[in-house]
Amino acid sequence: MSGNGKILVIGGGISGMTAAIEASEAGCDVVLVEKNPYLGGRVAQMNQYFPKLCPPSCGLEINLRRIRTSPSIRCLTTAEVEKIAGGPGSYQVTVRQQPRGVNNKCTACGACVEACPVERPNQYNLGMDTTKAIYLPFEMAYPVQFAIDGEACTGSECGKCVEACPYQAIDLEMKAETIEIEVQAVIWATGWEPYDASQIDGLGFGTYPNVINNLMMERLASLDGPTAGKIQRPGDEKEITSVAFVQCAGSRDENYQKHCSGVCCMGSLKQTRYVRDQYPDAEIHVFYIDIRSPGRLEDFYAAVQEDEKVHFIKGKAAKITEESPGGDLLVEAEDTLSGRRITQKVNLVVLATGLVPTDAAISIEGGELQRDEHGFLTADQPMAGLLGAGCAKRPVDVAACVRDATGAALKALQNCVK
Amino acid sequence: MADNDKKVAVWICRGCDVGESIDVEALETLATGDCEADSCQSHACLCGDEGVELIKTGIQDGDNALVIAGCSPRFNTDTFTFDGCLTERVNLREHVVWSHPANDEDTQMLAEDYLRMGIVRAKKAEVPEPFEAEIDKTILIVGGGQTGITAALEAARAGYQIVLVEKESQLGGRLNGFSKLFPKKPPYREPQPVDLDSRIQQIEQDDRITVYTGATIEKITGQPGQFDVSVQTNGSTTQFRAGAIIQATGWKPYDVSKLGHLGAECQNVVTNVQMEEMIASGKITRPSDGKPARRIAFVQCAGSRDKDHLPYCSGVCCRVTLKQAMLARGLDDQTQAFVLYKDIRTPGQYEDFYLAAQEDPEIFFTKGEVVSVKETSGGDLSVEMEDTLIDKHISVEADLVVLATGMVPQAADGEAVRLYQDAQATIAKGEAGAQLKMAEETVEKLKDHEGTAILNLGYRQGPDMPVLKYSFPDSHFICFPYETRRTGIYAAGCVRAPNDTDACAEDAAGAAMKAIQSVELASRGATVHPRWEDQSYPDFALQRCTQCKRCTEECPFGTLDEDEKGTPQLNVTRCRRCGICLGACPERIVSFKDYSVPIVSAMIKAIDVPDEFEEKPRLLGLLCENDAYPALDIAGLKRIQHSAWIRFIPVRCLGAVNVVWIADALSKGFDGVLLVGCKSGDDYQCHFVRGSELMGTRGDNIREKLTALALEEERVRVEQLDITEFRRLPEIINEFAQEIEDIGMNPFKGF
Fold first, then answer.
1. Architecture (CATH level 2) of domain A196-354
2. DSSP string across B445-472
3. How far apart are the C-alpha atoms of B73 and B556, rounded to whole Å?
4. Across the interface, do A66 and B532 touch by the CB < 8 Å criterion?
5. For residue range A109-129, what is the model confidence (pLDDT) as tens digits?
6. Considering only CB atoms, which chain A residues are within 8 Å of B679?
7. ipTM of the assembly?
8. CATH code of the region B254-406
9. Mutating which of B87, B342, B345, B479 best tests the A interface, going by the most A Cβ atoms within 10 A?
């Protein structure tokens, strides 16, 4: 590089990790700030990628190795950016790091887990199982250190984990810290949240246990998920013989989210393969408006269409009712190709909910971030060196996030050239 | 550093159950006794401050090769990295005590073997020294359209010198034909102007950017950091040196003449590219009679998503049609537009653009399959559709039909061109018989590739990038889309995949970043992803080379060229350090300082093989370090148990396994060999493209060896595994151990 500099990357998902790694490998110092106690973001929760049906942890492992061995990336987990001051060429950033409760003497031996008496809902598995209040977020998590859920933990009154730890790695009195950093550019790789499907009228999410969202399906199908990879009904743990995928659940809809999330069609097509792998005879119904499988992803759609037990129904599912509490579901839709109103009974409904850009509340001296009406960052930001990357800018798949984040790293670097 | 300059210090961590599960004292005795390490100490928690300080003190006192026995090398990586010191990690935690019963004789033997192997490796391996070469950091960009222009400006802004080569007489590529683009800014409802002139001006004014128009690439030889480029302009040749290359050669429209069923021969049937020109001219008239076209039917997916034409979706044609319908309506408000589609694809915020078009009452959308376009009378047209929302069969009358044709990459298939050229050379050499026949057949089959080369690389494996399905020179990687098979050469924009102008710009910036990175890493004597910063490189002991050409053929990255005799010539900055050449070489002449046939052979020899009366079989496991090794770590973290008969050695890639190791193991009395790598095939997961596949094809060689030794084929097993299969891996190991027990002991034990 003509001038080494320092940049800040907000968000440690696939876009943030990529931007950080790419910038560092070109010779730049990077501070990577992630609010979770681990890196990987949404990608760490996915079972497989489309169209190769390969595990995201394969690429994640390589990226983590690049981060582990890089002297120029400083990783701050359980941390969020509070404030950005200054201007182009020199931004002063205030980062607030929440107490992890576990310091870097932790060897991940797991002695604390046996001692901990408190259970908490496991957010990594979207609340579908529990962990102890002291937990390793997931097996491949980085940093490989346990963390304490401050809300669930009863604190030093209990202190059993502290006694159990042979390495003095647990500090229940750990306090939040404020860290000040000076950088030349900031990349927002703040990613997305799944749309809250309980806001959608008539689809029963949050009320009917067997109506789940697409991210829950990823966890259900994952070997390290709540069911060790077995797809079953959350309501009664039964195997399934039929499933409905409801596309555009809360998307392309003026009442909820206007935008198309671009990836949910491929997500559901991929998930039909998860179901098929485990249930060779299951009937799969896909309710859609348009199937959007751009580029060579069309091949994947074509392959799914060859499955005779996957039925594509052009029509938006309007209503879902429960046949009996915790039991089968009735999906009502109008088949716009035949004009018929149809009611399809299934064991399980997967709502293909869209991506909502994460709204990271960061105060910026000298101008607010520009977002469009959907909440995505626009290309023109108030000051040079403030950049968006990946799903913070628009809803895209992993490959597009990686390309965009690589490009964003270059744009950040341009601000470091003296 | 020679063996006798080494001071080997062994450190054993007793933490994380190690101290309670195995006899550490016995390990210490073994280390300084039989293994002849210079020192050995154990510590209750080596990764703690005190432990690390002890190690550092040892280094100050002259330790220069460390064996750290404790947790997996995937943990505490930075803690146990010491500059200039060779560090070998022995995985006593995940692979021994967490996956085997405590205080058990077999667990102890396992730990001792791993320690022996680690010490041997520490003695044999050397700290790699980076190669030194003069690296040019200029970036060559081939193609001056949207992607090439963006890449040039972005890389120049980061301070790099750029050479931009465009085959037409002016920059801009396809953008020159566009009147407007679809929107990139909120509220995403209206087409927006093409921003080309100002950017061309920026390029002209930037003294870091040199532009050659009307120019083609005559030849590129060399390697990243040292590419020698010849460019031809109007018959004259210019030569210069560049460090990295971006191929931004764009796309061409699908050949409409192949779409006879869609009325391609009718005068009033035009393509979306021709429509763009008409819109730019301000007048939309019928080619047949010059009358204004007021009923315009847009046929979507014309030759796209069609197994007889382009099976893929070009991703932009829906939005192009929306834009053209809007612009046509803007030119003449009496125009009606009929959009005949299978699916409207307007991802992300472009849904707003679709909504805006739907709000226009004179733009009609009809879903269905267009089966034919026919001329009725006086140049009028009828579009026949099936499976529509309205009826099984409908006809749409139109005075102009626009075929929304897709994008075809402007790329050459480097490997096909090479095969074609090789076959021609065979014919020219005057070969006869079967060889001549085969060459003639190849020439016939691949004749369409003649003269298609674009980059004209002087690479043994072909003059252009290898292509994937549908001729895109893409890497097909989801996680690492720039991990191409030609180091330092990156395809970007529509040549890599059908893209809109925004995605092209993002891709251009990404490719520029990778180009910069590749020259920066080369200047530090290191390689690029995925063995980023690795400074080791293969050394060829050429005096023993038999010119079998396996290494030049099998390298996935085209690293090696050949002289006339077929001797490999290393281009070190093309190399990704995967070690596939080391695996390929039957003469075992390829070595890395820290990874070689002798090093691994010595590790295998270090393993203690009990005689057959002890009834303790021994299995060798060669594990891909990228996926299988972490999977076994996770199994350990989960305390999943596996057979104590097996000893694992991580390898750079399954393709980096030399079969001599298998022969060594079997002749030493090992009862079986298990090889675990990543998935191969179309959806391969191998990080080096085809390493695991090559292991499969080398299987024949292994079987020959087994037959020669009169051993059962089942003694060698190759498995494919993905990183999430941490439960399956111990099962594979246990099943294999059982199978070997059933077969019985290797009769070569004790020989």
1. 3-Layer(bba) Sandwich (3.50)
2. HTGGGTT--SS-B--TT-SS----GGG-
3. 27
4. yes
5. 999 999 999 999 999 999 999
6. 54
7. 0.96
8. 3.50.50.60
9. B479
